[in-house]
What does this fold into?
Amino acid sequence: MTDISIPFGWNAYQSCQAQTCTNSYIQESGVSFWRDSNVIISLFFYVTVAGAYNISLVSDEIQREAEIQVSIPSLSFNYYAKFNQNSLNLSLGSIKIENPGYIKVDFQGTKSMINRKYGNYPKLKALVLSNVQNRNAIKFVQQSFSSHFGRRGPSVHLNYNLESKSNIQHFINHVAVPKYWDAVGTYAMAIGFDYGYFGMQVNSQHERRILFSVWSPQKTDDPSSILPENQVILVSKGKDTVINSFGNEGSGGQSYLVYPWVAGVGYQFRLDGYPGQDGYSYFTAYFRDPMKSERYTLIASWKRPKTQSYLTGLYSFLENFDPETGNISRKAYFNNQEAFDNRRKRVKVLSASFSYDDTANKQQRLDYDGGVDNKNGYYLRNCGFFDKTQVKRGNVFSKN
It folds into this structure.
């Protein structure tokens, strides 16, 4: 038997029952400075083995007596935890889990036991499961892993298999994010390649972008350190395209169009790439909204130094870049892929293989999926703590 301690700072999210709950209470140290009874803190973990578990709540700061409602909706569990100065480790009783899967535990402060004048709700550090026979029976984001990437959730990829990889100069992909699956932080990347990526993002409640970036050949996360001979150079851009440099995930040239794309619409992305005679390779991205135009719009064209390449390593991905929304599921469809070589000969896209990032590979998060829908094309899904699917890394999907 062993005890499993699940840290709030790596595995919890907050939601609000009122229109205005602006404070963020979740830090790596736990849930801190929590005053609002309209805020619900939700902690997630995955159980691989059914069984009975004792649970307790660990705090390392209690300012005054307070009461927190603890509920597990899927188990019809409800408990009122009353804290005083002696309640740094408070037993919540036992739970019985009959089926493997994700468990969500909600915490909400009661209005009657807290007053802004007298201090905060108790600081929540960890939820402890006791009587665990096998440590590997409980999966969650470990403190040894990045809380940023763990709370973001797993990124998932489709790696396209073409009948030929030689001299691919043009690639087209259609991407649709279904209605209600477009949470803030979503990046449905339509066309990735060895030197950059191109797709659409939800950047906030009020802004969405069509983003195209190309990496510099100099390996650095600091764009200001790139030597002049390693700079990615802008060749041309669309009328309303914004141009920046980027860092923290490699560095290079960034271009984006602020655009109010809509969930449920299939948008068209086209990428051209070829080696120039000047030692650069040229990469140009175009976007088309089928609801508004029959023509593609130029996003930007970049040239990359010390590179002689057509389009290689073609893939798509779905990620969440906002750690505060990793508890919300995303989904995207990728359809009608077309490839052409430098002689404009069509190259068949035969299939797509599934892969994921370290968050999934190290089993910090299990909420990922991918496959094929013969009507809507290949799909990717991630985040939201849905129960694990049977898809595995390396699975190959083919459309009829």
Remarks:
- The chain has two domains: 2-142, 150-397.
- The first helix runs from residue 8 to 11.
- The domain at 150-397 is CATH 2.60.120 (Jelly Rolls).
